[in-house]
Amino acid sequence: MKYACQQNNEKGMTLLELLLALTLTSLLLLLSPFILNVFQNTLTYDVYSMKMEETIFFNQISQEMKGAIMFRNINQGFELRRADGDTVSFTLTNLGHIIYRKNYSGNVRMLSNVDTFTCKEDDSLIICHINHEGRELERHFMLQPYRFNEVPSPT
Prior knowledge:
single chain, alpha+beta, three-stranded antiparallel sheet, 1 helix, 8 strands, 33% helix, 36% strand, transmembrane helix
């Protein structure tokens, strides 16, 4: 009979459990801006990195166009003949990489994840189109042939 009268009153939480829950909630709220900032910076870095790769690629083409005396379309790319005798080509591979070759040797990967790469000549203007990771890009380059017989006039 003695045991029948006792009631087990375990309703609610203890003070220690409430403090622990409050501490964990406070930490989550305090750290959430930092965690979100890390995710946002990662996404921003990927976009920035992609734009930098594209800029470097187009700058390389621009540098190679200087002093070029001949432009020729080749399958999925183009070839330049330079005044110094070098031949430079940019071609799209089946794996979606644009590679740079100088004098028919070397395979320097300039861009990855490229769907299409075309360049066409319109007089002395070269128009290049690429589809890089879903973005359509177009750049225009001037082909200014190096003239061997031109001597700069003294001023």
